[in-house]
Amino acid sequence: MNNQPFVHSSSSSNGFPHRRVEKVAGMNKAQPFVKNTEYGGEAGSVDTPSRQLLLFLTTCNIGHQVEVHLKNGSVYSGIFHAADVEKDFGIILKMASLIRDSRGTKSHSVLVSKPPSKTFIIPANELVQVIAKDLPVCSNNVSNSVQSKKPLELLTDSTISQSYHVDLERELKPWVPDDDLPDCSDLENVFDDPWKRGWNQFEVNKTLFGVTSTFDEELYTTKLERGPRTRELEEQALRIAREIEGENTRDLHVAEERGIQLSGKFDIDEETKYSSVCPHNRFDDTFYEEEEDILLDGCNNLTFGDSSASDGKKPASTGKVYEESWGDSLPSWNNTIVDQSWSNSNKHTRQLMSEQPSKDFPVAGSNIRNESLLGEQRNSKIVGASLYKKPSEESVSGLEDINEDAATSDLACLQLRTSERQSSTDGRLVSSFSDTAKSESSRGWPGSSISRNSENSAASPVSNRPILSPSSSIGSLSSEKSTLNPNAKEFKLNPNARSFKPSPTATRPQSPVTDGSFYYPPVPPMPIHIAYGMGAAFPGQQPMMYNNATQLSPNQAYYSPNSPQYPQQMMVSQQRPVLFMPPSPYQPEMPYKGRDSY
Amino acid sequence: MKKPPAAAPVAKDDGEGEGAKFAMGKVYSVKLITGDEFNGIVLAYDSNPNFVSFEEGMKSKKPGDLKNIRMVNANFITELKNLGKVKDPLAKKHLILLDALKSKERDAISNIERIGIGVTVEAQIIFDTLSKTHPVRWVNTDILAMGEVLIRSPYHSDCVFGGPRVVNNEVKRVLGLTRKKLELTDTGDN
């Protein structure tokens, strides 16, 4: 734009249009102040820091609406465009207009009476001062909002739709009551404690509505002995309370309640503190979310009593605690394992570690008791967990199969985790486990399965698939041993299995048979009717009974036995409620147990 | 902008007196030949063009604040009264984002160009509202929309001329809606 001959407003009061042409070239060179590189300096100019600053400040003016005072007293307002820094600092304004002329009369309608000069040049010898009001002088460490302002072209919807007449913002003032408002002084202490106010709600209720309170504290809590021993008891209670509250805790939440600042680092954000999602876990997140609360509760019973939400906080110290309590029962448990394990200590895994051995090591003497709770909870998640009963190879192979499904973290997961983190110590870690396990095999420990487990974990140290440890499942099953069929084969999910197809030669009644268990007699008006029993699931059970196709009227929906079906019963009958009574060995909660054809 | 390395600026004799007089940080009460007076802190000075940059005020503000900066031609200073000194009125490191400044200038110019000369308030309001969604500019007192359609005074829907039919109708429609939204009387047919 500087290259073009300038369009001067003919009204420029000083009449210097044409002499300035030669200055244009000079200004052109000076105009692009390339300030973000080191200023090389022009020949002949003095490169003092002060000059640098002057140039800097001059450059800051660019684009800013400035007021320029001229020698003759006139004042122009315009957008600072350029300055001739090489010569004498003449400047160029854009869209300049006269604000005050040389006679001192202010021009009221500054911009609307006549069009502003598109470009306006002011030589230095006319220039007295250039005033830039509210100029953002930017420096490195200051984030400059002006420079980062969104350009005008980007309009947000709200600015577009905003009505022209609406004030953008009002200055907020605190509310001051009018003088003539009634003085409701009795409302002023509304938030005081109830006994301080002069109003007893129970009395009022009694008076107004005849309602008497029948509240008796002793119905809800222990009766306090109020007698000669009251003071003594009180003091004792206070002492105990103080003791408890002053206890050192590692639980973030408890610590916060007690006002103890647990973590040294303050960068634990709210999410880490209060979320129930365990961070840094490599396995199924959803699993953790559900289990976390349960485990939090369980944690409190542990000797260690910790439930850290952040990892890596309790290394060796916690480990050592573990070690102490299990010193005799886990001779091969060495420090290195513990340290490695806890270097990214996750309470969950710690807990599992704790509970798992304690199950089978009654001498451990630890207070770990919650494995059954955990086990049950885990059951809900793990499809096949309940199937693991005995130290057999099958159970372990089931492990591998279940790999894809199960999303549990476990002793094995601990192995996995530490193996992922410190691959160099994989062998050591795992082997010690297996050693431990083997030494206890006489106690019914699934030694073989552990060793196989170790193979698994060693073989795929970096896979994220959790390996279900039979040990934990055994632990979890302790309460259910009685109900499980010790001889049943364990379930192996075979994704390529064909769906069940009852063979046509299987006993199949040609006519309705009155048999109590599976029978579902056809009723012609019934719309849909499918009854697929679980018969085939049980070895030695009676064959499955289902309705003969001939008994269905043609327009009734009917599931052909050849179509892939899962043996679920769908009883859709509006007219005859039929109770499906499974035969006794059928266990509803484990429908797939021991099925052969699958 | 980085400051030049401390090694050897070409030390031209710029008159020690002047340099010392306008040393950075000095606070002066300045009087100009125009009669203007103010108090300012010296931020920068160069004797070659003999210009001084003042920060208005007597106390140095924080680096993030906006300042009133005055670039004064030292030749026109009539009186200087020393009011003291402040330390480090400017931050050490300086940063200029030239592109940002250029776009700032563009915005400022377009802002001024939006103002119609000698138009009524109503016209200006219409123009502003239209400009949010359509390209409009002033042609004397007429609004040129989409580069093709002219809206003449008094800016009703029947004052829309020119352009292809489609564009014309579009502008008519938008104008009608705008008027309705602004609750201006609309005597034209929509």
Number of domains of chain B: 2
CATH topology of the largest domain in chain B: SH3 type barrels
Write down the overall geometry of chain A. extended
Low-confidence stretches of chain A: 1-45, 141-148, 284-290, 305-480, 512-520, 525-575, 582-595
Helix content of chain B: 25-40%
Question: What is the count of helical runs of chain B?
Answer: 4
Domain AD (chain B): 94-183
Protein name (chain B): AD domain-containing protein
Biased composition (Polar residues) (chain A): 345-356, 421-436, 448-463, 502-513
Biased composition (Low complexity) (chain A): 466-479
Descriptive notes:
- The complex is a heterodimer of chains A (598) and B (190).
- With 598 residues, chain A is α+β, with helices and mostly antiparallel strands.
- In chain A, 30% of the residues lie in helices and 7% in strands.
- Chain A is built from 17 helices and five strands.
- In chain A, strands 4-3-2-1-5 form a five-stranded antiparallel β-sheet.
- Chain A is extended, with a radius of gyration of 43 Å.
- With 190 residues, chain B is α+β, with helices and mostly antiparallel strands.
- Chain B has two domains: 18-113, SH3 type barrels; 121-181.
- Chain B has four helices and nine strands, in the order αβββββααββββα.
- Chain B has helices at 16-21, 98-113, 121-133, 165-182, and strands at residues 26-32, 37-46, 51-56, 66-73, 77-85, 136-139, 142-145, 149-151, 160-161.
- In chain B, the strands form two sheets. Chain B has a five-stranded antiparallel β-sheet with strand order 4-3-2-1-5, with no helix packed on it.
- In chain B, a hairpin with a 4-residue loop joins β1 and β2 (37-46).
- Chain B is elongated, with a radius of gyration of 27 Å.
- Chains A and B meet through α2 and β5 of A and β2, β4, α2 and α3 of B.
- β5 (127-136) of chain A pairs antiparallel with β4 of chain B.
